[in-house]
Design brief:
The complex is a heterotetramer, with 2 copies of chain A (about 140 residues) and 2 copies of chain B (about 80 residues). Chain A is α+β, with helices and mostly antiparallel strands and about 140 residues long. Chain A has one domain: Alpha-Beta Complex (Aldehyde Oxidoreductase, domain 3), CATH 3.90.1170.40. Chain A is built from 3 helices and 10 strands; from the N terminus they run E-H-E-E-E-E-H-E-E-E-H-E-E. In chain A, the strands form 3 sheets. A 4-stranded mixed beta sheet of chain A has the order 1-6-8-2, sandwiched between helices. In chain A, helix 2 runs antiparallel to helix 3. Chain A is elongated, with a radius of gyration of 16 Å. Chain B has a single domain, classed as Roll (Ubiquitin-like (UB roll)). Helices cover about 20% and strands about 25% of the residues of chain B. Chain B contains 2 helices and 5 strands. In chain B, strands 2-1-5-3-4 form a 5-stranded mixed beta sheet. In chain B, a hairpin with a 2-residue loop joins strand 3 and strand 4. Classes of the chains: A alpha+beta (about 140), B alpha+beta (about 80). Chains in contact: A-B, A-C, C-D. Chains A and C meet through helix 1, strand 2 and helix 3 of A and helix 1, strand 2 and helix 3 of C.
Chain lengths: ~140, ~80, ~140, ~80
């Protein structure tokens, strides 16, 4: 079972974890990305995530499907990404996977977040005291 | 043919609007559309990468565009 | 900051996650071990964990300290292990770590759960319809 | 000297009690205590591993035991 979501509301981490619970899965690995108070040493005051929604959802599902292909023992996957304005400490993304044994839960979760960062059509603008930057836009 | 191109993030800022409507020769390949846009908006050349998405999939440079395609310009993503 | 606990009460996963939140940490990795409904193909009806408490707590802290030495950027660590009788689906262990960047969060969390399983003085008895076994006791 | 040995898991079941009090020569090394216990309770030989903990640390076979030590027999652990 795969759950994908892109939301402008705060992500409920506990509810996301419940989505991947399974009596046949002894291992749940979860990655939570939160907004840090600094970026490359510069104090961050807030973030804005912009998304190309239809493609982001389509690509998120592809990433989850690829993980399921690569680790067929994957029981459940949930990937929830936030968009809009986020403050320091806010949850930007949650990836949760359940598997019968633990090694695969780590590998699959890491694959999903690593691949998400490469392909999912979401853009992040960091706001500082004295300006803003689209993250990764320029070399 | 007429193409509508959705713009996001820094590409939207560079072009100054969220959607671009252009006229292009029929069956134009993706790489030619990119070249046309980079000529018109030189700041696009400064980006780390610039891709084109067609119908929610990343497109190769050789892919041919059609009038009904949902086209988007994809500057470097930064989710997560 | 390191939080270690061994408890005979149900583990509050959301509260454990809050323990590792940090404005300087953009990445939280969590491993949750739950009771599976089967073990090597055999249906399990419940589990019992027995602990040598003082040594288990001491060894858990050592494992967390070793992780902190190996990944100095580790911000916070929480390791909570359950003991007593557990039913299918119950949470047996939660490991949560926060780091500025994600790769270290995966590596440190996996190190802690892998090492915990090797050294921490907790024993598990699986109960089946027709008997019980101390897990890993015999070759 | 008199030693108290705490027992857990399957070791507690094999010995039939949670704590064993034995008399041992002064400064007995861990490996001799283990051998003594294995002789007395042969089922301990069937375990995948059997360690001795002294004051909450795993002990080497050559470590010498003292009367005030907190000693425990550690069958294969299975936390997590």
């Amino acid at each position: 079972m795969i759950t994908i979501d892109l939301t402008d509301q705060p992500i409920d981490v506990a509810a996301t974890l419940e989505l991947v619970q399974s009596d046949g899965a002894g291992a749940v690995n979860t990655f939570i990305g939160t907004v840090r108070n600094k970026s490359t040493g510069r104090p961050v005051v807030r973030l804005e995530y912009e998304a190309y929604d239809s493609m982001a959802l389509h690509q998120l599902r592809k990433v989850a499907d690829q993980a399921k292909e690569q680790w067929p023992m994957l029981e459940k996957v949930a990937v929830i990404h936030r968009k809009g304005t986020l403050q320091i400490g806010d949850v930007a993304v949650v990836v949760a996977v359940s598997t019968p044994h633990r090694a695969e839960s780590f590998a699959a979760c890491q694959y999903i977040i690593d691949t998400l960062k490469q392909v999912v059509t979401i853009w992040k603008k960091e706001f500082y005291e004295d300006g803003d930057v689209w993250v990764a836009a320029h070399p | 043919m007429n193409l509508k191109i959705a713009l996001f993030g820094i590409a939207k800022e560079i072009v100054g609007q969220p959607m671009l409507e252009i006229t292009a020769p029929a069956d134009q390949p993706v790489q030619e559309l990119l070249e046309q846009l980079r000529t018109q908006y030189p700041a696009l050349r400064g980006l780390s990468s610039l891709a084109v998405a067609v119908n929610n999939e990343y497109a190769e440079g050789s892919q041919l565009l059609h009038e009904r395609d949902e086209i988007a310009l994809i500057p470097p993503v930064a989710g997560g």
